[in-house]
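Friendly challenge for the regulars: who can give me the structure tokens for this chain first? No prize, just bragging rights.
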Amino acid sequence: MGILTATSDGVAVLTLDNPPMNLVTLDLTRELDAALDRLAREAAVRVLVVTGAGERAFCAGSDIKEFGGVADDVVSKKLTAENAAFSRLAAFPRPTIAAINGVAFGGGLELAVCCDLLVAAADARLALPEVKLGVFPGSGGTIRVPRRIGEGRAKLLMFTGEPIDADTALAWGLVNRVVPRGHALVAARELAASLAALPARALAIMKQAVAIGLEQPEADAIRRTLALSAEVFKTDDCREGARAFLAKNAARFRHS
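First reply, four minutes later:
Bragging rights claimed.
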């Protein structure tokens, strides 16, 4: 129980394993942070998939039983560590994919939107229900969810606390793909495998460039992305990609 990881062919799968609903506890948060730190430093990991054990939940949010022990100083006792772990996922240097099975509520949805891409099973439900506990999404939900779906839709999720289904999440742009029930992890791993076959350095630089564009004024972002372009054009994989295109054969990327 806790965090499980496995890596194969460039794809790492990180599983929240706290049955039955994979709740975010203080211990799980510490394990998550440590696992993400380790995986980020492993060169063999070119894509990361995050999922929840079982079919009932990706993650149903925080363990409410812990609230009594942290309420007097929730920032130092819970939220600082939680935000650090979630931000580590958001800043993971290679592409990340959330495989959403069952529910992604509260902190579970806040964790999922730290990933670059979200794949949801057809029966998935997503919500930010914190208002029903008299609180609000305190681990990045008020920041990352509006960036994905816009202010109005994000406020509707947060103000009402009501869940949306997978098709609505797809229409809103909250998830990228909806797949048949029980196939979220399979589909996420297939997508991850296709990304892992592409030049790793180019993907990492692309992810960095998108973040720069979202966070900085346009002129500053363009200046910084020009420097990234200069870097990626010097890689062996760039030369291999051009060679293969001109030769009309398959590229053999070395993920330099």
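The chain has a mean pLDDT of 96. The radius of gyration is 19 Å. Your move, everyone else.
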